Amino acid sequence: MAQSPQRPNGTLQTPKADMPHHDSQDPQEAGPSLHVGGEIFPVVEIRTTGDVILEVHFENTGACNKSIPSEDIRKFKISKSSIPSPRIFYRVRLETLNKNSRYFQHLLGPSFAEGSAIAKAFASLAQSKLNPTEIEAGRLPRIKIVDEDAATRTIGRETIFSDMLRIMHGAEHATRPFTLNCLAVLVVMADRYNALPTVARYVQKTLKNFKYPVTLDTKAEEALRQKILIFYHTDQAMRFASATKELILRGSSIWSSADEATTDFQTAWWDLPDGLEGELAHRRACVLRTIASVQMQCLSLYSSKDRQCKLGYDSSGACDSFQLGEMVKFLTRKDLLSLVSFQAASPDDTDDYIWPEIYSGDIENLVGLLRQCPSYQINHYHSHCGLRSKLLPALDYIKICVEIGIGIKFGRSRGDWKNNAWRETSKARSEKKAFWVTNEDGEHVDVSGEKTRAFNFALVNQRATWGINDLGGEKNARSLFTAEKWNWIREPEDNEKALKSRFMRADPALN
């Protein structure tokens, strides 16, 4: 998230650990120099006709865990030397900065001392009949800013800052190789300095063939998060929808981690902006809750007093007991069901009491586990009984809805996704006033008029109409995953009677 322009905190002094820094990416631009505080510093000429010097102090701390080039961070850790915080001097055009960055437009405007100082310096040069675009760098007005490492935790980001300035001035980036981390740092800096429109156009045009790394498992989560941040800030809607879908399916280490304070989780891509982080976590929870509802309804049905086997055989009661046992056996073996004794220890006694763990794996793997449900029957007359016949159609529909509708999508504006957010805003939640009463069955019911969002699988169109070309697919997916109650029993009572009659006609022994 971009910060408001701030004035530098006092006059910057050259740290003792600082050495004159040469931009390794631009040896040909290392000629011009400045004498500052008894030291000579090279000037990076973004424009040889620049009329101001931008002095940037890149503050680095021990929290940095990345570097550009990538191998530098390892060298610092091995040598145990202090991490430098370089001061870099860039020759740029004031008009170009103001045109492409609202940060500099405000900072260098009349409201800030920096802008007033530059205006006075230009007036003084004009009185001396000097053109600032033609004089040496040492006579140009200097602007001092501080770039902290909090958002990227990356050493060497001064090279990416140079690239951002080049892009503002209509040139191409110079950093080679230009990795995913380089692109992520560029986008974060563009957001920080309110230069996203210019950088986004550059990424869409010049870097349209950039090869983003494949992120197939949770080990590549940071790269996936960097892609999401890049796609979001550079208006790549289709890639953004695909990447957010992937993160929802794979899950995040910070959504299930007890230690969110670690420095590994403190960069911009580990806390996605504009409410995206919470929305992604919420969507994953919705999908998992929906999948869990299928097995929970089947367990509830087979553990209730109502007969589930409708064939009318003497073995129907035994069939229900057999199927319930098979369900419990299968689900516990796959670690998808936890059995907690009624004599459980106090929840405060964490040493003795084991709470069921939240599923943190891949959702596609979870669906695959459930599809392994065996089709065991008590005998061959009960081939339609059990979990599998109810589970597979539900999983097929869930899979289609996952493919169609769990990724976050936006249109012309990035903020469009909020119009179809699954997560209610705090304002919407506060406006709901529930009024609970107890009905004749002893159940607590909200009679405030707010309808419970319910999903009924029996009302879903026939399977032939499912698919990614369904115009209402996204709406249906949202309705499914944001429901509060689910009914996965698809066969109405008359179909069960017809099924029973077919079974009886098929077996002469039953006639």
Automatic annotation (TrEMBL):
Disordered as annotated region, ranges: 1-34
Tree of life domain: Eukaryota
Compositionally biased region (Polar residues): 1-14
Protein name: BTB domain-containing protein
